[in-house]
Amino acid sequence: MKALLVIDVQNGIVNFSDFTKELSLMEEVIKDFKERNLPVIFIRHMEDNEEDPLYRNSVGSELHSSLKDYAEYIIEKHTPSSFYKTELSNLLEKLEVDHLFITGFNTEFCCMFTAIAAYDRGYEVTFIENATGTTNSEDTYEMPGLDIKDFVGTVLHWSGAIEVLDYDEYVEEYKEKK
Length: 178
Fold this sequence. Notes:
Shape: globular
Structural class: alpha/beta
CATH superfamily: Isochorismatase-like
Radius of gyration: 15 Å
Order of helices and strands: EHHEEHEHEHEH
Domain Isochorismatase-like: 3-142
Protein name: Isochorismatase family protein
CATH topology: Rossmann fold
GO molecular function, one term: hydrolase activity
Helix content: 25-40%
Number of helices: 6
InterPro entries: Isochorismatase-like_dom, Isochorismatase-like_hydrls, Isochorismatase-like_sf
CATH class: Alpha Beta
Pfam families: Isochorismatase (PF00857)
Largest sheet: 6 strands, parallel
Strand content: 15-25%
Number of strands: 6
């Protein structure tokens, strides 16, 4: 069975910049999964440091209003991997999931780490590159011209282990084959 992971779509991240396009693509994938009665699992990153935008008891840690009503399941995590010391593996086993689709934030951390961890656990993984977003930029990494989403997508694709698609490719490959 297929399942969708929607990673860290929380106020403390989404309110950082204009992610209208990314959120719209995430919502389209979510709607497709819902129409096919496939599980949609939201992941929430929680920090214990009160200064962090994703501090456990803050508004920043809450799921963003644009997508939170779609959350069937919510898994809390404390590291970039959605699997490390969480209940995600148990939930996926219970739901008999063998293929995970990855969307969410931050592309180069939580989305990438989760995709790799899923592959390491034997899941087929599809990373929907333009349905991820990041609060970082070429300036963050001091790498002029860096397109973070494209770079991460290329690295994952070249690994030969993880399928990387843009939303349009996802539609062609999966949505039309209901």
